[in-house]
Amino acid sequence: MTAQLMRVKDLTKHFPIRGGVLNRVVNHVKAVNGVDFTIRRGEVLGLVGESGSGKTTVGRLLLRLEQATAGSIEFDGTDILGLSKPELRRYRKRMQIIFQDPYASLNPREKIRTLIGHALHLHNIGEPASREGRTVELLEQVGLSADYLDRFPHEFSGGQRQRIGIARALAVDPEFLVADEPVSALDVSIQAQVVNLLEDLKQRLNLTMLFIAHDLAVVEHICDRVVVMYLGRVMEIAPAETLYARPNHPYTEALLSAVPVPRPGRRRKRVVLKGDIPSPIDPPSGCVFRTRCPRAVDICAQKVPELKKIGPDHYSACHLTT
């Protein structure tokens, strides 16, 4: 089995809600609630779920862009939650992020040579004279040319801006990338190009990646394994092939029922969930999915289901799983 690069254990993030004259903490948004999973070297792990499930918060916690409330994040054997700022800076070189909105993540007042070159300067990579050559190399790696060095972000299309964001993330030769819904803001035809680029880069550079998305059709194309989240908790983990062929958790079944089957005449049974995802301020007791689950029974309201192994590399958090 491939060695683990990252191990996440009981990861929790509660955002305080303040109010009153004294601005005291009156409640918490339970964005992430005891999440466990691993990421293996060289794999693309998909993280999926509806909006509000905690996917993006998990990605930001892994990079320490948010500070966890509890739990542990081991990266290459070291718990990064206990690192000091100087120690964390050394690890940051090994971990980078591709943001969802390529335009908002790029400074509109800086040229592309500066946007990419700044990462090289910040981490003291190469000599000043060689950094422009490295910047050109990075642009070419993502399918752009040196002609774009002196242009500003507004002069590019959305797909080109995302390629620039990818080049910037690759500038420090990271081992691990968090791709936070990197294609959701792009047209469908451009989405395929960017996904294919990420898949090619993963192979050529031996990258490990957490790919966050709500579009399960995209996830199926690029991911080796998939983690399904709902309201801050993990519902199911499985190899992508297993998950799409034999989903176990009723929430996974509902998500997959909306994904078109790429075979003429075949379709999945549609599962329509009732109501909206509950508030993370006051999540349901027991299984957080029970208020929308078509199979819920009494125990679902009383006890949080354990994420248990049900097959080779396949885990599900459902009381009805045998």
Q: Strands of the biggest beta sheet: in what spatial order?
A: 6-7-8-3-9-10-12-11
Number of domains: 1
What structural class should be given to the helix and strand makeup? Answer: alpha/beta
CATH third-tier fold name? Rossmann fold
Strand content: 25-35%
Task: Show the helix and strand layout.
Blueprint: E1 4-19, E2 24-40, E3 44-48, H1 55-62, E4 70-75, E5 78-79, H2 85-92, E6 95-98, H3 112-122, H4 128-141, H5 158-170, E7 176-180, H6 188-205, E8 208-213, H7 216-222, E9 225-230, E10 233-239, H8 240-245, H9 250-257, H10 298-302, E11 308-311, E12 314-316
Parallel strand pairs: 3-8, 3-9, 6-7, 7-8
Antiparallel strand pairs: 1-2, 1-4, 4-5, 9-10, 10-12, 11-12
Describe the structure.
The protein has one domain: P-loop containing nucleotide triphosphate hydrolases (Rossmann fold), CATH 3.40.50. The protein is 30% helix and 25% strand. It is built from 10 helices and 12 strands. The strands form 2 sheets. An 8-stranded mixed sheet has the order 6-7-8-3-9-10-12-11, with helices on both faces. It has a 4-stranded antiparallel sheet with strand order 2-1-4-5. β11 and β12 form a beta hairpin. α3 packs across α4, α3 runs parallel beside α5 and α4 crosses α5. The longest helix is centred in the middle third of the chain and has 18 residues. The radius of gyration is 21 Å and the shape is globular. The mean pLDDT is 91.
Defining traits:
322 residues, alpha/beta, Rossmann fold, 8-stranded mixed β-sheet, 4-stranded antiparallel β-sheet, 12 strands, 30% helix, 25% strand, globular
